[in-house]
# Entry
Amino acid sequence: MPGNKKRTQGGDIDREQAFEAEKERERLEQIQQERLAQQKAEKAREEARERRERNARVELLKLRQGQTVESPTLAVEQPHVDPRPKDFKGKLKNFWSYYKWWVLIGIVAVGVFGWLTVDTIQRSKKDLTVLVATTRPDVSQHYEEIQSFLERYCEDFDGDGNVKVELFTLEFGDGANSVLDPQYQLQNRQKLQSELAAGNALLILADDTVVEEIIGGDDVFLPLQDVYPDMELHGAHDALLYLDTLKGFHRVFQGEDAEMFDGMNIALRNIDAVVGGSREKLEKRLSNAKNVLERIMEDRPAEEAE
# Structure
């Protein structure tokens, strides 16, 4: 029995030593793991620091080269600066740099619109429309003089403060020797018939060839003897007057300028032969045309009458 007891005690000692040895081993392993974890953490912190420094150097280099870079690193390390100007001059400069093209386009658009508006307001309305139809090249080269001549005897019928006579001009060839394009002459014939039907021009200047060969018809013109029964009339027949027989004509045209109007007639339209337009407007236009013709016949310029 004593021998068994000694063996038991010896076994207990061995187990305790083994247990203590196991605990020491576990403690050493734990210490080793903690050291490894600490080394890993330290290494990770070092790598992160080096990465931040590297990114910062790259971004700083880009900024020096004029590039704009949004950097989380720089956003943390550098204070935020508001790029917007604070003073009026700076704000104006900033606005111009961003919107100058839109501003310029707006200015041009407003300028064009304003010019069109002013031009429309200031543009003189026509007081009278006169049809000029001729086969004479020399007459067709003096439309401005004819217009000025007619405006001399025209009143300001619309009351806009300006006198304007509009010429509706048509040119035709004189026979087979004409140099005018046949297609062009055909188009003018169509325009003439359209105008005669519409009745926009109730005072007509036309040479004998146009009257006899192109216009034709006895009801196209108003018999002037019925309009001016007390006046001595001259012309191809009672509806036409030769332009160079009128007093006012010779005040403006003299010598060679007057000779080129040989055979040029002046007449009034018969509104009963007009297809289009209201009767009231036709009568008003005819009244104005009569007024101008009478002034030419009597050589009474509109300005002198005022």
The CA atoms of residues 35 and 55 lie 30 Å apart.
